[in-house]
Amino acid sequence: MRISVQSEPLAPWGLLAEYEQQLNARHHGKHGACASFVGTMRDFNEGDAVQGMFLEHYPGMTEKALQQLAEEAQAEYGLLDVLLVHRVGELRPGEPIVLVAVWSAHRKAAFEACRSLMEDLKRRAPFWKREQLPDGHRWVEKNTTGY
Amino acid sequence: MRISVQSEPLAPWGLLAEYEQQLNARHHGKHGACASFVGTMRDFNEGDAVQGMFLEHYPGMTEKALQQLAEEAQAEYGLLDVLLVHRVGELRPGEPIVLVAVWSAHRKAAFEACRSLMEDLKRRAPFWKREQLPDGHRWVEKNTTGY
Amino acid sequence: MVEANLGAQTMTIHVKFFASLKEQMGCDGASVEIGEVASAADVWLSASGGQPMPPNTLVAINMEYVDPNQAVQDGDEVAFFPPVTGG
Amino acid sequence: MVEANLGAQTMTIHVKFFASLKEQMGCDGASVEIGEVASAADVWLSASGGQPMPPNTLVAINMEYVDPNQAVQDGDEVAFFPPVTGG
Hints:
The complex is a heterotetramer, with 2 copies of chain A and 2 copies of chain C. By secondary structure, chain A is α+β, with helices and mostly antiparallel strands. Chain A has one domain: Aldehyde Oxidoreductase, domain 3. Chain A has 3 helices and 10 strands. In chain A, helix 2 packs antiparallel against helix 3. Chain A is elongated. Chain C has one domain: Ubiquitin-like (UB roll) (Roll), CATH 3.10.20. In chain C, 18% of the residues lie in helices and 31% in strands. Chain C contains 2 helices and 5 strands. Chain C has a 5-stranded mixed beta sheet. In chain C, strand 3 and strand 4 form a beta hairpin. Chains in contact: A-B, A-D, B-C. At the A-B interface, helix 1, strand 2 and helix 3 of A face helix 1, strand 2 and helix 3 of B.
């Protein structure tokens, strides 16, 4: 399991390729399924053009909360592994914000765990988005529903 | 949209990285969500050790069926893009069999479309698995349920 | 077609078998001649030498899934295969 | 603790504000001295100069979510923030 919060640009496919090499060394042939999700910054939200975003977090608590969520999902769905990386700081449209990937023996657990982990992250992990609009900034007040 | 069937080893993360570059050129900032699934050959099935696998397909119909499934999912979920790659021929345990990736504005559509497309593929795309066991081979008779 | 009622014409149908069905039939396909009013199920009987079609066999005409009772046309490619197991 | 009934001791609580609440309070945190029986909500009142806590404010003590009525201990880090919007 690897959990991280980073201010550098997030390259999800490179991270996955790299992580999966280690993972194959640990349980080659045991995982039949990997489900992943990448959330990316859009250039629109609630009908407005968005030029940039600042992602604030709570250093210490954010990592701890992500770790708890990943461990809960691993236990609940019997996952073989979890990779969870979240971006913070200043972002431009088109840049990835979050990567959630889970590995399991069968696909049902992978699909369900990936989605559930992403929803839990949105509901419980301490991150806050401030959007830069043409005429000022605003804090995003709540996430869209995921189900 | 890109659909392909290949007998060469399938490197899902490299394919995704490459495909997403083209996709960003087309609709940069429009997709907020990418859900993907990679199915990998396990070294066990139904309690038996599996040493290798041969994946047969129906050249022509297989590609046509995958194209139809991808177009149906795109229409039903309002997807921005779909990448679907399936391996055929001789495989070893640990090798990826299939990659399904979908892009959409919001995560609900991406999660649902990715899973639904994968289930439709399992139900309708003409592929057949023959497993190499220690004492001979057997055709897989049906897939496990995904829901 | 004008010939439809003559009953003397035959159609050429290109038959394909896949996976376990190919092993069972001992070949991956054949061309069969069949009367001009025929279904995919009739094609099976002709191509298999009268064997019953295994339960759950899937049928495609020209690479589209069809019901076994679907009529075939001259020159059609008719495929028979077991339940699919990809992904 | 023996001192529990004396009422004269105080606790030092490290307060943090995040996001819109940080902007609203004009600072990202402070250390406050508070009586030795106090809840997170009491810490809010002390740190905010008596302002009402905005609806939906989330509260964490030592980086764990808690109910605002949860008691605080000397040296605790108590954080107040709006609904989270990551991912």
